[in-house]
Amino acid sequence: MSTKKLPLLLLGLSIISLVVFIASGEVSCKDGFPFRGKINAENVKLRAGYNENFTALKNLKKGEDIIVLDKYFCWYKVKLPNDVYCYVSKTYINDEGFVTANQLNARAGSGEKYHILGKLKKGEQVFIVSREGDWYKISPPRGASGWVYEDYMDKISEIKSGDTIKQPIGLINDVFRDNNINSKEIIAYGKLPKIETGKLENYTTKELKTIIFAYNNFSKTYTESKYGKELEHKLDFLNLELKNRQEQTASSAHSQNQISDKFNTIGTLRDLGRVYGTDATHKLKIKAKTKYYLKSSNINLDDYIYKEVKIEGIIEDDYSKYPLINVRQIEVIN
């Protein structure tokens, strides 16, 4: 080989080596990780990956604390906050909420097109928030992470192996075990009945009442629970659904009473005059005493004033001093 070609060959090998180095994995410095960070700007995007083309998962607030796990070029890999949910295919979750696949991807949305935020192993339990089609929305699993651009993060302090990391909801901290988590609370939470807030119509009223009782009982037992916000959110949906059902039942019962209160009677029809608080227009006297208020949508009752009549109708209000009758048929008695 000529000496003229040698520099070109060395340059080419250097370029190839550089490309291989960059492509081989993360360019990161393990020293100093993990550490506590603080967001230093408003509305900082937490993304599903390490560039701006990845899905924005949340707008982080200025001053918000976050745990930094690693770095890739100019992006920090951070522990996923507990108010950023993940999605898993319901095909691989059994009725008790445990993963049945050897490895299950936790994604940023309900579909395989969304980026992977973490992974679950067979036998791990998930905490289901709701169902979206064939996908479960779940609390972020252990290891779930997002990315923040380095300019928007300030380092506070390193995390040592003996540190306690307070994080709401999570069972195990992604870096070290959280000694502040009550194991009894975890077990009690795991035994709570699971619900799908978007499918409450599939539950019987008895089931809803049972779930509400269980959630309220848990909240009273663990007043400072890490799951409090999540249960409060679910209880709002449950109580609203129960209230709507109770109102529908009451309305239906009232309608049934209206139908069953058909009757007929005889009396003298008179004009009602001015009476506020009612939509009655006439009254019916029996033996010179007012007994009923009357109204009708298909009969002109003015044609029967001072006449003795037989009326047929439905009682629409039997709580007043004078029950209101909606007159359906009327006949003059000779």
Report on the structure:
The protein is elongated. The chain is 23% helix and 31% strand. The chain folds into four domains: 93 residues, SH3 Domains (SH3 type barrels); 55 residues, Roll (SH3 type barrels); 77 residues; 72 residues, Beta Barrel (OB fold (Dihydrolipoamide Acetyltransferase, E2P)), CATH 2.40.50. The strands form five sheets. Strands 11-5-4-1-12 form a five-stranded antiparallel sheet, with no helix packed on it. With 334 residues, it is α+β, with helices and mostly antiparallel strands. Helix 3 packs antiparallel against helix 4. Strand 7 and strand 8 form a beta hairpin. It is built from four helices and 17 strands.
